[in-house]
Design a protein that fits this description.
Shape: elongated
Strand content: 25-35%
Largest sheet: 8 strands, antiparallel
Order of helices and strands: HHEEEEEEEE
Number of helices: 2
Radius of gyration: 28 Å
Strand order of the largest sheet: 1-2-3-6-5-4-7-8
């Protein structure tokens, strides 16, 4: 009976119980490598690059303030705004050149977005008939139509309103608000934090 080369090598290894030792060593190395890879994978989960802004940051926190103007703390994840003038959540448009504030009236199933300048409180009318809002949970896309405020000039609006049945759900929303100002597209992410709903 003629044995293959592998059989000739494996037979003495079995005899000396080396094969099981080598198998254990191999399994330990495989387990170690797998563990290291999993640690690396989980350490990078959640790390995302910030989207490039449409303007160049002008100071240490990414946007200008009007002369002598200050605003809420930028401490949360590098850029928290606190509540806006209408008690909504505020997001950047263009690295702080503009700000948008999202509010929701659950009874009306209505979302409202206000456009502000760099100071986060001065209404800034834009030449747009609508803007878009994408909510991540529950997933929805809402087109908000221009609803000019009292002091907005003709053909411009600093307030946009849209309805969707899912806005009737009382919860904290997160998503993206996007629009175009003077031919430049702007987009900003927002996330509501727990607070009392009306």
């Amino acid at each position: 009976m003629r044995l293959s080369f592998c059989s000739r090598i494996a037979e003495p290894l079995n005899y000396l119980n080396i094969k099981s030792t080598l198998t254990k060593v191999y399994k330990m190395k495989l387990l170690s490598i797998t563990s290291i890879l999993l640690v690396c994978l989980f350490s990078f989960v959640g790390c995302k690059q910030q989207a490039a802004s449409t303007t160049v940051p002008t100071d240490d926190h990414g946007h200008e303030h009007a002369d002598g103007e200050e605003h809420d703390d930028h401490g949360v994840a590098g850029h928290g705004h606190g509540a806006g003038p209408h008690d909504g959540v505020v997001a950047d448009w263009g690295g702080g050149k503009f700000h948008v504030e999202f509010t929701v009236d659950h009874d009306k199933q209505e979302g409202t977005v206000y456009i502000f300048g760099a100071d986060e409180k001065t209404p800034t009318p834009i030449d747009a008939t609508e803007i878009e809002m994408s909510i991540t949970d529950p997933v929805m896309q809402v087109t908000l139509k221009a609803a000019p405020q009292e002091n907005d000039p003709a053909g411009k609006a600093s307030r946009f309103i849209g309805n969707h049945e899912k806005l009737g759900v009382v919860q904290e929303y997160a998503g993206t608000i996007s629009g175009v100002i003077d031919g430049t597209p702007y987009s900003g992410d927002f996330q509501e934090e727990a607070h009392g709903h009306e």
